[in-house]
Amino acid sequence: MAPVRFVMVGGFLGAGKTTTLARLARHYMGRGLRVGLVTNDQAQDLVDTNSLRAQGFAVSEVPGACFCCKFDELVGKAGELEVSQRPDVILAEPVGSCTDLVATVVQPLRALYAGRFVVAPYSVLFKPSHGLRILRNEGAGFSPKAAYIFRKQLEEADAIVVNRADELAAAQVAELKALLSDQFPETPVLTVSAKTGDGFEAYTALLDQDGAFGRKILDIDYDVYAEGEAELGWLNLSAHLANDPPFALDPVLTRTIEGLRTVLAGGRGEVAHLKVIGLEPGGAFGVANLVSSGTGTELSLASNVTTGEADVIVNARVAMDPDELEREVRHVLRNVCAAAGLRVAFRQSQSLRPGRPTPTHRFAAAVG
Ligand SMILES: Nc1nc2c(ncn2[C@@H]2O[C@H](COP(=O)(O)OP(=O)(O)OP(=O)(O)O)[C@@H](O)[C@H]2O)c(=O)[nH]1
Ligand SMILES: [Mg+2]
């Protein structure tokens, strides 16, 4: 069998990785290639897995910790996709608070699975809402330790991909490019919009390249990294909503995110990413998001359905105590449902602070 091209796209929480992977998947499928995706999270019940599956893609999931700590499971899940889909390309999304992926994923894949995978250049999406403030050294609502992770993610990239170009003024793009070329002078910078597809021609051309990529081994302090990650509260929660007569699904999703934006305002905890998916039995689905405390609620994927019941999953990553975060999410969802006259039955929930990363492999120097 020909080796599978392994395309991993990094970037901070809410940078646009899942949106980008969906666009890349369509791009490769349009070229006649078969595609599989692997998602990753600290916990079960992942919005991204459900959203990508609902869009028709073949998705495997590595839950419970980042790819670096679950390297064998990543290879195992890629293997399941190889059997079921015979993919030419596997697209992989690591957890957005994870870094050091070149030393712990790219290099081990190259060294240990050379005949099975060809690893594409490692690109990292840049999230302007937090990134501009971090590059200006203004702080971004997070502690310096979380900002440390953000910077380390950029430092190991073969290319930095500034996302959300559709929202950026020309002066902002110019400032970002100047800051990035000053602080990461060796790294090419692309500008894209995962939403509109602008810039993807150059981006996919970069991902098609072979050569001396995936070789930037970080000098990284795992204590700072672990403490930075542990400052984030993490919540994955699922529930079932029902009503007779049927209700419009999308407003429930946006009101849930908007309700959380309101209760978390006033410095209670910077939002890294809040997302909710609603799935109705017929297969229609909608997703609403908030990517920082200073931006607005967005219905990123509309279901446009009215339904008698729906499953909802909330994934919240906020710099606050995870138990408090869970209380707020339950409270807001209950209020949104009460206001709309819906019955809500809570199902699973996991709230946590990410544990210290202990990678399966860590290469101290690049091989090959
Ligand atoms: N305007 C605009 N919004 C975007 C773009 N790319 C992503 N978004 C929005 O940003 C939000 C987060 O996008 P995701 O693709 O879920 O981000 P992510 O990096 O996968 O997030 P995590 O998995 O939580 O780390 C969603 O509301 C997207 O619709 C873009 O190019 N332009
Ligand atoms: Mg994602």
How would you sum up this structure, described in words?
- By secondary structure, this protein is α/β, with parallel strands linked by helices.
- Helix content is 37%, strand content 26%.
- The chain has helices spanning 17-30, 47-54, 71-85, 101-112, 128-135, 144-155, 170-183, 200-207, 222-230, 249-264, 322-340, and strands at residues 4-11, 35-41, 59-63, 89-92, 117-119, 123-126, 159-162, 189-191, 233-248, 271-279, 285-290, 298-301, 306-318, 343-352.
- Strands 1, 2, 3, 4, 5, 6, 7 and 8 form an 8-stranded parallel β-sheet that branches. A 6-stranded antiparallel β-sheet has the order 12-11-10-13-9-14, sandwiched between helices.
- A hairpin with a 7-residue loop joins strand 11 (285-290) and strand 12.
- Helix 6 crosses helix 9 and helix 10 (249-264) packs across helix 11 (322-340).
- It is globular.
- The two termini are 22 Å apart.
- The relative contact order is 0.17.
